[in-house]
Amino acid sequence: MCGIIGYIGKLQAAPLILDGLRRLEYRGYDSAGMAIEHQGALGLLRSSGKLINLATKLNDHPLRGTVGIGHTRWATHGRPTEENAHPHTDCTGTLVVIHNGIIENYAVLKKELLASHTFKSETDTEVLVHMIEDEYRGNNLHAAVRKVLARVRGSYALVVLSAQEPDKLVVARQGSPLVVGLGDGENFVASDVPAFLASTQRAVFIEDGDTGVLTAQGFTCYGADGGEKQYAVQTITWSPVQAEKEGFKHFMLKEIFEQPRVISDTMRGRLMLEGCGIHLEEMNLAADWLRTISRVVVVACGTSWHSGLTGKFLFEQLCQLPVEVDYASEFRYRNLLVGPDTLVIAITQSGETADTLMAVRAAKKLGAKTLAICNVVGSSITRETDATVYTHAGPEIGVASTKAFTAQLTVLYIFALYLARLRRTISDAQLCELSEALYRVPQQVEQLLKKDGFLKELAQDYFKCTDFLYLGRGINYPVALEGALKLKEISYIHAEGYPAGEMKHGPIALIDESLPVVVIATEDHIREKVIGNIKEVNARGGTVVALVTDGDMEMIDLVDEAIYIP
Fold this sequence. Notes:
- The protein is α/β, with parallel strands linked by helices.
- It has 19 helices and 27 strands.
- The chain is globular.
């Protein structure tokens, strides 16, 4: 999500920066810009929309110079406009910053700066450039950046360029990726390797808490304590196409492993542990109206429908609201009972699903308020709904949805907490407890992904099966549906997902030693009911593969294979 590229060397920087931004397009963006230093002055070009708009401007107004920075932005704070595009400049126009991440305490910092600085954007990033401006004395940009970052709370991949010190780029990383590319008399910095792989294969992956100074001759890295730090240079052996897959065999596998970052990105700026804050100001739906709604209707297709069905359990439990989840393809063909007191939530990764668009239009005609949960900025559905909450999954290239599904679940969870707080249906203590639990999820997903070797071995035992049954109860029932859908889509194996309590109404007749049954059997209030279902499978000779909570030793004797999860 978002792309950073910086160059310092002997060649004209603008074409290299534009090429680097093109190679980072897969990260997703809604605006772009670049700044080039030449003879003590900075040239700046920015545009909203696609890179072709920036390229057209560059063609009409060429920027000369051998040092520069470029950025593709995905809007978080502030709309996707030219004014909000990076790079951002200080009041003098001699200092520029590009930044990925979220400055969580930007509002407090901005309030302090307003008396002496003019802000030209709605972004959180602009506070950084004005803070550096205040600390900078024209001869030690790195020291000024370090001093500013000591006051900043949040995440950042940061590159700073000053016309007063045009022989260097200052970089910093905390929570967002940043990598240096080392060339011959030229060097790069980027958010991802593909940006510079056509020029060099030697890379330094900057670590959290590090800062650094990049010149045409080399890179100097500094640790969190301010001392100079040794770093490892890695040789990237991927081709540019392989690099976009980050070494994974295919995009779907890459996207599965991106889920911890995607969940974290989707929470960032919205979920605040300090004070248990939930921030969804971007949604632009009146809080007073949300307090009075009497019903929620979710419309979606495929995987998005499964995330919506999971959301039903969250809204009903936390917000005490009746929720209906409908296939978008069926929604508009019924006698719809929605009106001004109904919130219709449309969930779609692309924002272009025709059935979901038509469902939104039908709901709006009847006076319902509409909210999109979507991954693509500026897509059709975001233009037609009353409000949008974006997932920050980045482009999903794999055909079967993976990271988009978990990003949708993250947004639904955050929105349910937000709505529950507005409606006072949960206590402050519950809100804090649930927020903290959600905050831990990215790390827990990372733990689970480390078991990929075990899962490969498990797949070897079952890939010749022709049928699978997936079972879950309560909030895990939609997850069972999603598991079955994935197996069908990717392995071409017939699979069905069922509520575990419905197993006796049909599927039980099919269970024998040739039918593997995947059961979600984690710790919750209906675990004993799930154990009963497992014993029914056991009695008929079926094979049970269970998802089990870490430490649940009772399950070992009941199942054939246990996948332990946090």
